[in-house]
Design a protein that fits this description.
The chain is mostly helical and 220 residues long. It folds into 2 domains: 1-49, Arc Repressor Mutant, subunit A; 52-214, Tetracycline Repressor, domain 2 (Orthogonal Bundle), CATH 1.10.357.10. The protein has helices at residues 3-25, 32-39, 43-49, 53-75, 82-99, 101-111, 115-121, 124-150, 159-179, 198-214, and strands at 181-187, 190-195. A two-stranded antiparallel sheet has the order 1-2. Helix 5 (82-99) runs antiparallel to helix 8 (124-150), helix 5 packs parallel to helix 9 (159-179) and helix 5 packs antiparallel against helix 10 (198-214). It is globular. The model has no long low-confidence stretch (mean pLDDT 93).
Length: 220
């Protein structure tokens, strides 16, 4: 096996261990030492493959995004209306996010940084892979926005920007689902926390995606 092949294999082992720990313990609880122990290596070796913890997070997120993109591609169907197709991929996104809380945590861990800061934390090649994986996912939504606008079903003036907004908004919905509680008022001035109606929240999340793409820009 060549040096390049061995390096790629080791990187994959590290990513697999990272994801396994993220999903079993949560992103905040997974430490570099734990990942190294899981693979059976010294933590210093991890930093030979991934320059920072954020870079490791980014490449783990690429794995999640690759799976999401495959789900989007599988359900795409331009024989149905753009609204129906948008509902299909939105449902896939939220269903995946519910099944993989670590995806949400990993994505939001990177969103804590400004874009200019992330450039300092992640080398160009991994950052390019992250951007490509993200773009492949968002492009499904962009294409649906464009088709729906052409057909008069939707009203989207900047499909790429809206796709980014919807993605970030979707992570927020999934955060609420994982929190599993909502806040209301039992009497004036008396707040109360109650169990979240998960199925209703997920339905509202899908409806929100369609709604924001359907409102004429001047009315937003």
């Amino acid at each position: 096996m060549s040096v390049e092949a061995r390096r790629a294999l080791r990187s994959r082992e590290i990513l697999n261990a990272t994801r396994a720990l993220f999903e079993s313990r949560g992103v905040r609880e997974a430490q570099i030492d734990d990942i190294a122990n899981s693979v059976g290596i010294n933590r210093a070796i991890i930093y030979r493959h991934f320059s920072t913890k954020e870079e490791l997070f980014a490449m783990t997120l690429v794995d999640y995004l690759t799976e999401i993109e495959a789900l989007f591609a599988e359900v795409r169907n331009d024989e149905v209306s753009a609204i129906d197709e948008l509902q299909l991929i939105s449902t896939e996104f939220f269903t995946y996010g519910m099944a993989h809380p670590a995806f949400v945590d990993c994505a939001q861990a990177l969103l804590r940084f400004r874009g200019t800061e992330l450039v300092d934390e992640i080398r160009p090649e991994p950052l390019f892979k992250l951007g490509s994986a993200m773009n492949l996912c968002l492009d499904h939504m962009v294409q649906i926005f464009e088709r729906g606008t052409r057909d008069g079903e939707l009203s989207v003036t900047d499909p790429t920007l809206l796709a980014n907004v919807v993605y970030t908004q979707g992570l927020g919905f999934l955060n609420l689902v994982h929190f599993q509680k909502a806040v209301g008022e039992i009497a004036e001035g008396n707040p109360v926390m109650f169990d979240l109606p998960i199925e209703r929240v997920m339905s509202l999340a899908v409806e929100a995606v369609v709604a924001v793409a359907s409102i004429p820009f001047a009315d937003r």
